[in-house]
Amino acid sequence: MIVGSFAFSGCKFINEKILKKTSDTLEVYVFNLEQKLAGQEAEYQSSLAQIQRESQAMIDSIIMYYESELTSKGRKISPAATGTFYLIVGSFKTPSYAQNYSAKIADMGYRSQILKVGYWNFVAAESHTNLRTALSGLDKVRSDIVATSWIYVAR
Fold first, then answer.
1. CATH code, 65
2. Mean pLDDT, the chain, as a whole number?
3. In a domain, 29, yes or no
4. Helices and strands of the chain, counted as H and E runs
5. Has residue 54 been placed in a domain?
6. 3-class SS of residue 122
7. Closest listed residue to residue 57, CA positions, set 155, 149, 146
8. What are the CA-CA distances from residue 18 to residues 1, 10, 22, 34, 58 (Å)?
């Protein structure tokens, strides 16, 4: 019996009925694929977080510079900086998802646009040329659309 079970170890009947062996190569493949996708997702999330940190650091440094310049000259603080500041309401790896979400945001009355940054497709509800107005617009976007909205500073 023992010799027979080794000789027929590739036999489906012996593996399932006698040896109670239910290992399936498809299950192993799915597990490995899920592990790979989880690793890629972690990489994408890390990349997105890095972009958000860089944008926030740029915003903070711009505000500090202009406010210190203005206060050192005894002038009243006015709009802090110029440039392009995008109010990001969604980040997608798949362009079609970004297009669908952008259309939904446009239907809400916003001037939605899609920005391609690396392998990300950012959906912006608005863009501003002034940081102060972008910050005030961010409060409205966070209350109307999504609380995790953030500002992306175009380089």
1. 3.30.70.1070
2. 80
3. no
4. 5, 4
5. yes
6. strand
7. 155
8. 11, 12, 11, 31, 66
